[in-house]
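Q: What does the predicted 3D structure of Pseudouridine synthase look like?
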Amino acid sequence: MTGPTRTGDHRAMPVPDGVEGERIDSAMARMFGLSRTRAAELIADGNVTVDGGAAAKSDRLEAGSWLEVTLPPPPEPPAARAEPVPGLSVVHEDADIVVVDKPAAVVAHPTVGWTGPTVLQGLLASGVELATSGAAERQGIVHRLDANTTGLMVLAKSEAAYSVLKRAFKERVVDKVYHALVQGHPDPLRGTVDAPIDRHPAGDGRWAVVAGGRPSVTHYDTVEAFRAASLLEIKLETGRTHQIRVHMSALRHPCVGDHLYGADPALAERLGVRRQWLHAVRLGFEHPTLGRRVEFESPYPRDLEAALELLREE
């Protein structure tokens, strides 16, 4: 039996007032979260019309004109394959869940363009059977960590656990606690960032605080202050892509080593940090079948601990 066929996404709408007078490639980038290069490719391939006529990327849009865009289907993500992942450790396993401590340079599941190791690869290689609900390449995945964010992840082994955990994350009843080393000293030392997040208008893979984005709430508290940086404990209400990194950058206190979001490379070099200093240190939730609260903790990886030791010696 073959799987479902992926079809393109056809969109038709009047040109909004907010992009009147803009070049069509620039306007499409803003409207659909594309890069200008990708928008220009769609136009060149004949996938864009204005008032029924073929468009050129340099055309200027008029409000009220009828814009039609066909977005080709995204490429299929690669299937997960069993392959040992060095550094991936199992913190807890029972019939319904498995909790892992994820190392750096590992993503949760296979994605288009990623050729490195994944959590799923490592678990499959160790013989762990995961729930099959959802997309095949994301079996058992109920939440994710960025590739270079280390720490705790829970995955579902049973279908019942998958359903319960997905709902728990959606309803924000999971305690997700991170430690982050950020540049400078946040003022106030304890606070909440409530700012919507969406794709960065540049279309370059970053996310940003954007009006009209998805609601995103981050609570932080200073644990330890150093001369050039602060160690924060961070609790998430929501779980947006890059949420902590985006919110800390918006406060002008990016995670040390997070060059994508404006961190100082000189400080990272001095501390020997080659990725964002961000670690999922605690994870707590109601066990999906046992009905009792469980909580797990993860120590700092050696590279993050070494950076703190250097700061304490200053």
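A (community wiki): The structure tokens above were generated from the sequence. The chain has three domains: 9-71, 75-171, 172-314. Residues 1-7 have pLDDT under 50 and may be disordered.
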